[in-house]
Write a structure and sequence with these properties.
Layout lengths: L8 H12 L3 H14 L4 E7 L5 E6 L6 H7 L30 H8 L1 E7 L5 E7 L2 E8 L6 E7 L6 H4 L5 H18 L4 E6 L2 E6 L6 H12 L1 H5 L1 E8 L2 E8 L4 E2 L5 E5 L2 E3 L2 H11 L8 E2 L1 E6 L5 E2 L10 E2 L2 H18 L7 H10 L52 H8 L5 E6 L3 E6 L2 E6 H20 L3 E11 L2 H9 L1 H6 L3 E4 L4 E8 L7 H15 L3 H17 L10 H13 L13 E5 H7 L4
Parallel strand pairs: 1-7, 12-15
Antiparallel strand pairs: 1-2, 2-6, 3-4, 3-6, 4-5, 7-8, 9-10, 10-15, 11-14, 12-13, 16-17, 18-19, 19-20, 20-24, 21-23, 22-23
Helix pairs in contact: 1-4, 2-6, 6-7, 9-10, 13-17, 13-18, 14-16
C-alpha cells in the first residue's frame, strides 16, 4: 500500500499561504503590487488592528470582469505571463511585480476575502472567500469609473496558531508602513494613502517619473534632511543603469535600514547590493556607520532572476560582478562630484546646541518695548579691550593676523566656498568668513583627509608594493573557501597579496602588501574568504589598505594645538575646495561647519 497521499486543495493553499502570507504586511505588499500591475494611479490602503482585523486596498486600475474575477482566485492563474509563439513560457521575461498567481488564493485560504472589481463602462462584480470556501461572483454596487476593491478580514482565523507568531499592533502597523513606503518610492507617478484605525498617516500625491519627481517623492518619505544632503546618481554600463540619490558621508546612520534598493522597480533586500554600497562608502565611513540612499537598478529582465525567494525579496543576477562594479562606480563618481560639500545637518546640530530650547532667548523676558534689557555693568565689555573669550584670541594679539592681508585678497577669498580665514580658535579650529556667513574648520580632520587623498592617489599611480615572506604561510580552510580565494588570485596579486594552491583546502601565502607591515596572513586570508562568500568581492584587503593609509594620514597631518598663520590657514581652505570628499574626515565626521548669517542673526534676535 502506498504511503504517498494527495493533499486536499485547501491544505495545499494553507501551506502556500505560510510562504506567501507571513504577516499582515505580506498581504498589503501582494495587494498593492497587484494594483500597480493593474495600472492604478491612486491606491488607498486602510488597516485596523495592525492589519490583523482588517486590510482594505482600493485602486483605480483596469479592473476585472466576472470571468477574470473567478480566475483571479484560482492557484497559478495570472494575467502577467503569456506563452511565446512556440507555446513555451519564459519565466525570465517578467516585467510585472507579481507573476505566480498565488497571492489571492493563499490569502483567501487563511482569511475572509472579499473582492469587488469593475472595468470601465461595465458592471461591477463581487466574490467572497472564507477560509478557502468560495461564494459568488455576484453583481455589486458600481466603483465609479472602475478599479478593484479588496478587503481582507480576520487574517489567520482559519489557522489560529499563526496568530501567536504575530507581533504587537504597533509593530505590524510599522511593517505595513515600511512596505507601502518602499513601493511608493519606486512609483513616484502613483498616489498613495495609508490609514490606520481611522487616522491617515501617509498621503502621497502623484509626482511623475523624472529625476525631480523622484527626489520630491523621497523628500515626502525620508524628510527634507535627506533631500538637502543627497547627491544624484546616474550611471550606465553594458545595458545596466543605476539611478537614484545617495546621502553625503557626513549624513550617516547607525544601521542600513535607511538603504532602499530596487531592481526593475521591485524593492529588494539583496546582500550583493548592500555589499556594493558598503564597498563604495568604505573609504568615507567607520564600519559601524551606514549611508542613507535610494538606488534603482534597471536591466534586461533576462539578466536577473526574481523568482528565487517566495516573497520576491531577493534576486539573482546573471553577472553579479558587473552590477556590483557599476553600483560602486556610480556612488563613488557621485561622491567625487560632491567635492568638499558636507551635510547641512551639521550646521543645524551646531545651532541647536547654542539656541535655547523653544528658540526663546534667555533674556527675552527682560526685554521691554524699547528692546533687550541691558546686561549689568559688571558684565559689559568695551570692543576696544584686548580680551579673550573661551580661547578666542583677538586679532590684535595674533601672530601674522589674517587682517594683514590686502583688502582685495580678503574680498576675493570671501567669494570662494570656504571663504577667507579670519582667526584660529584653541589652536584647533579655523574661523573663516564667507559672503553670507562663517565657516568653522577642524584643521586636523581636514588636513587628515587631504593627506589621505594624496596617499591614495600615489598608491594608485605606483601600485601596491609586495613584500616576500621568508617562509610561505600555509592557511588551512574548507575547500569551498579556498577555491573562492584562489579564483581571485590574479586580482589579489595586483593588490600585493600573492597566493598559491597548497593541496585540498589550503592556500600558501607567498607575498603580502608591504603597506600592511607585519600582517597576520592567516586572519587576512580567512577574512577575504568570508567577504567573497558574502559579497563576492575582496573587501577586507582593500579596507585594510585604506585603514593603514588613514592611520598614516592621521599621524602625518596638522595636529590640533598647532598655531597656523594666515597663509597656512587660507592654503588649507583652498586645498579643501580642490579636493574631493574633503567635507568629511576618513571616518565620516564633518571637517567643517557652515553657519549662514541669517541663522546667526536669529540667535541674537535680529530676525
Amino acid at each position: 500500500m502506498s504511503i504517498i497521499r494527495r493533499l486536499p486543495p485547501e491544505t495545499v493553499n494553507r501551506i502556500a499561504a505560510g510562504e506567501v502570507v507571513e504577516r499582515p504586511a505580506s498581504v498589503v505588499k501582494e495587494l498593492v503590487e497587484n494594483a500597480l500591475d493593474a495600472g492604478a494611479q491612486q491606491i488607498d490602503i486602510t488597516i485596523e488592528d495592525g492589519g490583523k482585523s482588517r486590510v482594505l486596498v482600493a485602486d483605480d486600475g483596469h479592473g476585472m470582469d466576472k470571468e477574470g474575477l473567478e480566475l483571479a482566485v484560482e492557484r497559478h492563474a495570472t494575467s502577467k505571463l503569456a506563452p511565446a509563439e512556440d507555446g513555451s513560457w519564459d519565466l525570465l521575461a517578467i516585467s510585472t511585480m507579481g507573476f505566480r498567481g498565488e497571492a489571492l488564493p493563499s490569502i483567501g485560504s487563511v482569511a475572509r476575502l472579499s473582492l469587488t472589481s469593475q472595468q470601465a463602462g461595465k458592471d461591477a462584480w463581487q466574490l467572497n472567500i472564507d477560509g478557502g470556501v468560495q461564494n459568488g461572483p455576484r453583481p455589486a454596487s458600481p466603483l465609479g469609473l472602475g478599479g478593484t476593491r479588496i478587503e481582507v478580514r480576520d487574517l489567520f482565523f482559519a489557522v489560529p496558531a499563526r496568530l501567536k507568531f504575530l507581533k504587537s499592533e504597533r509593530a505590524e502597523s510599522m511593517a505595513i508602513s515600511d512596505v507601502v513606503r518602499r513601493l511608493a518610492m519606486a512609483r513616484a507617478d502613483v498616489g498613495f494613502t495609508l490609514t490606520s484605525n481611522g487616522r491617515t498617516g501617509l498621503r502621497l500625491t502623484p509626482k511623475g517619473m523624472d529625476e525631480t519627481a523622484q527626489l520630491a517623492r523621497l523628500d515626502d518619505l525620508l524628510g527634507r534632511d535627506f533631500a538637502k544632503n543627497a547627491i544624484a546618481v546616474d550611471q550606465e554600463r553594458e545595458g545596466i543603469r543605476v539611478t537614484g540619490f545617495a546621502g553625503l558621508p557626513t549624513y550617516h546612520q547607525g544601521s542600513n535600514r535607511h538603504q532602499y534598493l530596487f531592481v526593475n522597480g521591485r524593492p529588494v533586500r539583496d546582500k550583493l547590493l548592500h555589499g556594493a554600497v558598503r564597498g563604495a562608502y568604505a573609504d568615507f565611513l567607520a564600519r559601524d556607520r551606514h549611508p542613507a540612499l535610494a538606488l534603482f537598478v534597471e536591466l534586461d529582465p533576462h539578466q536577473v532572476d526574481v523568482n528565487v525567494h517566495p516573497a520576491k525579496a531577493e534576486v539573482r543576477f546573471r553577472d553579479p560582478g558587473l552590477v556590483r562594479g557599476l553600483i560602486v562606480g556610480a556612488l563613488r563618481h557621485g561622491l567625487a562630484a560632491a567635492g568638499h560639500r558636507a551635510s547641512t545637518t551639521t550646521a543645524g546640530f551646531a545651532l541647536g546646541k547654542v539656541r535655547p530650547e523653544g528658540d526663546s532667548l534667555p533674556w527675552a523676558g527682560q526685554a521691554g518695548a524699547q528692546g533687550f534689557a541691558r546686561a549689568p555693568q559688571s558684565q559689559q565689555h568695551s570692543f576696544g579691550e584686548s580680551t579673550r573669550y573661551a580661547g578666542f584670541e583677538a586679532p590684535s594679539a595674533r601672530h601674522e593676523a589674517p587682517e594683514a592681508q590686502s583688502q582685495a585678497n580678503m574680498q576675493a577669498a570671501q567669494e570662494l566656498p570656504l571663504g577667507a580665514a579670519r582667526a584660529q580658535v584653541h589652536e584647533t579650529y579655523i574661523v573663516a568668513q564667507t559672503q553670507d556667513g562663517i565657516v568653522i574648520v577642524d584643521q586636523h580632520a581636514a588636513h587628515e583627509r587631504l593627506v589621505y587623498e594624496d596617499m591614495k592617489a600615489a598608491l594608485e599611480r605606483s601600485g601596491v608594493a609586495a613584500q616576500a615572506l621568508l617562509v610561505p604561510e600555509i592557511v588551512e580552510m574548507d575547500e569551498a573557501s579556498a577555491e573562492r580565494v584562489l579564483a581571485r588570485a590574479v586580482e589579489l596579486g595586483e593588490m600585493g597579496l600573492t597566493l598559491e594552491a597548497f593541496g585540498s583546502g589550503a592556500v600558501a601565502v607567498r607575498e603580502t602588501p608591504a603597506l600592511l607591515g607585519n600582517v597576520d596572513a592567516q586572519r587576512l586570508v580567512r577574512d577575504l574568504a568570508d567577504d567573497l562568500a558574502q559579497y563576492d568581492t575582496a573587501l577586507s584587503l582593500k579596507e585594510r589598505l585604506e585603514e593603514v593609509c588613514s592611520t598614516m594620514a592621521c599621524h602625518g597631518s596638522v595636529r590640533a594645538g598647532r598655531r597656523l598663520n594666515a597663509d597656512e590657514m587660507n592654503a588649507l581652505l583652498r586645498q579643501m575646495e580642490a579636493t574631493p570628499h574633503s567635507g568629511q574626515c576618513n571616518h565620516g565626521r564633518p571637517t567643517y561647519v557652515e553657519l549662514k548669517l541669517k541663522d546667526i542673526e536669529k540667535l541674537f534676535g535680529r530676525r
